[in-house]
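Workshop exercise sheet. Pairs work together: one partner reads the sequence aloud, the other fills in the structure field after running the prediction. Swap roles for the next sheet.
Pair: D.N. / O.F.
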Amino acid sequence: MDIKETGKKLKPFAPVLSVALVTACVAGSLSGYEAPVYAATQEETPVKKEETKEKKEEKKTAAKGSFDLEDGVYKGTGTGYAGDITVSVQIKDKQIVSIDILSSSDDAAFFSRAKAVIDKIIEGQTLDVDTVSGATFSSRGIISAVKNALTGEKDNSTTGQAQSGQTAAAAGSSTSVAKVEDAAAYKDGTYYGSGTGFGGPLKVMVEISGGKIASIQIVENSDGSDYISKAASLIDSIIAKQSTNVDTVSGATYSSVGIIQAVRDALGQAAVNGTSDTSQNNNNNNSNNNGSSDNNNSTVTGTVPYKEGIYYGTAEGYSGDVSVAVVIQEKTIKAILITESSDDEAFFNRAMDVVKKVIKTQKTDDVDTVSGATYSSKGLLNAIKNALKQAEKVTNGESIDEKPDVTELEELIEKAEKLEEDAYTEASWAVLQTRLADAKEALEETKQTAVDKAAEKLKKAIAQLESKDGKDEENTKYFSGTYEVTVPCEPDEDEDFEGYNLTMSVTIRDDKIVAITDITGDGASDNDRYILKAANGTSSIKGVVSQIIEKGMSEDIDTVSHATCSSNAILEGCKKVLKAAERPTDTEAE
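Structure field:
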């Protein structure tokens, strides 16, 4: 058994998925608890309590970091993608214990991904960390802001937006489009076209009715939500003029050009008379790697009794959630786009056969799962069914906007507001106020997950504050502290993988497990997704980490299906930590 105590600030294990959804783009940091480092590893049992206290002091000294600053909260600013990023950094015993984002003007989706650098900084107690792929400028801005807070060094770099603007044209984007001759008429139907926006490929769906452009919807893009929202305003101009010869939108030029290109591509397929200018020689067969649609030349029609629109559904695949967007028009499923999946690409591509079958038959009931990709295809099929359930609700006049339960969050806010500042340290009080502000903002959120995260953060901030209010540590069963443990993860008779060692950090406070982070395996990289699934679960199954944190102990915890061995390894690690952290009884001490 390998268990050691660390002074690291721990954060819940939380991966981030960011997806550009159909029609519109969907526009954190968890200040953790640094437990007092009192407990010792499994060494010789102390004979007297006085000796135990001496060991505590030794451990405290050994756990100190290298930031030569007074305890407190420091504020700093760095340059992100769209502007300044401001952070607060809490220092305790020369160590970074929390980093909070105070303000940012970067796109929310990219910025959420960039926050992963916060974990890296705190875990390594260093600013020499890698930026986050796919959110380079935002993550670099966070690092610079922390550096500014701790060293005073200013970030004089230009914004990522300015830098990207200089190179976007070279990446395939353009700031202008030439005028073209519009087609004399168009064939009625639904057509899909592609262009290149600021961040990459951009796809639209164009509906032709009565020989005219009736509607245009953006179904896929890689641009930021602010830019695409601005650029989308030119769609009304295209429909009003029945022409793509419109002006781009100032402040969203690249996205505007991408939309115009994509609409022209779609119209090129619908044109009745020769229109080589609009097609631009783009051979688009009305399908793409992220989804499927019926061929425009086919006569497939359906009897789907739902209102026209784009509906979303999510279900559990093999390695995690699968999300889709289903396009319904003229009582027909016109397209099914995959917006999220963490399943293995080879299996998932095979599973895509169910999408083709649904579009071909216009039914979900008679579609079989794909042999060799059962879980992925089942997940796809269930996600499509869930999307159709949303369509049914809309058709029946029901609301699909489920309001989150904010009862617990409101109670925590009320409790936090009643706490008196005088009883606590300035640093702890600053963390609480940050969490309180985040919690109040979360009351306006429409997603339960956002509300739950805010409640969890505020709950921990309150607990951290109250733990400093003179509670007698000697009356607890376990030594509070953060422990690192390594346990073997061995396959059972149903699992086909090579055994490996799983390492994680476990924080104990007030006789409860309050954090489990840094969960890693030293085996093949294929094991990572199972470890992730075991820790965080799926949309329908709770991960073992959240179950343990809720109960405070590792007993009576359900393992996660298809990640059983990893789940059991996490549970075994917690048990070993609790054993090592247990205080000696008076009898044992004697």
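Discussion prompt: The longest helix spans residues 374-395. What would you look at next?
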